[in-house]
């Protein structure tokens, strides 16, 4: 299958065209044992439980009770499968659109962060040249509706949504890293109890005065390198403050 064929197949599968919930269009054979939707849902469950690396076509076929090669009659490649998974996750977490502009943007960012925390593997899927399916396109539409009444260029509208999404992704990555570290068996407090004194003993205080002072204050307060949850609240509030000032919204 050429790259062009794969791209066309991806669009048809994302939009379930022409025959929703069936095997790959145009393939002859017996009636499908499962639907494309079931394949995608199972893949999401596997990624949530074991990570994206565990989502191989062979492992997914076994999970569905299919032969390894028969899975390709539903999705032609793993890359296509990943795109379908991302689009389906967007369907499961709709954008809250209610209240004032900043209130809705705040809610949008928080829902998006929770999505990444619930599905950490999303951070491993490239967002570049990602074909929009109906659910991700509906999400973008809903996000833009939040700021539809604000006088700005269409490029600026995209920048607003993109800036919030980029902040969420960065914080979610840090939060997941903190969660992974906690699962290692060594708590942040135990880690800091070892690393803090060790750093103090080797770091010349006159060379890094600000880093030493601020780092010590953070470590002593959180008993950890930092607190992603508080960092998210602080950073999101500052972003929304900037939008309030720049756009004149409330």
UniProtKB/TrEMBL annotation:
| Pfam families in the record | TetR_C_1
Biological-process GO terms, alphabetical: negative regulation of DNA-templated transcription
Domain HTH tetR-type, first and last residues per copy: 33-93
Recite the UniProt keywords alphabetically: DNA-binding, Transcription, Transcription regulation
Q: Does the record bear DNA-binding in its keywords?
A: yes
Quote the InterPro entries the UniProt record gives. Answer: Homeodomain-like_sf, HTH-type_TetR-like_transc_reg, HTH_TetR, Repressor_TetR_C, Tet_transcr_reg_TetR-rel_C_sf
GO MF terms here are:
DNA-binding transcription factor activity; transcription cis-regulatory region binding
Residue range(s) of DNA binding per entry = 56-75
Coiled coil (residue ranges): none
Highest taxon, organism lineage = Bacteria
What protein name applies here? TetR/AcrR family transcriptional regulator C-terminal domain-containing protein
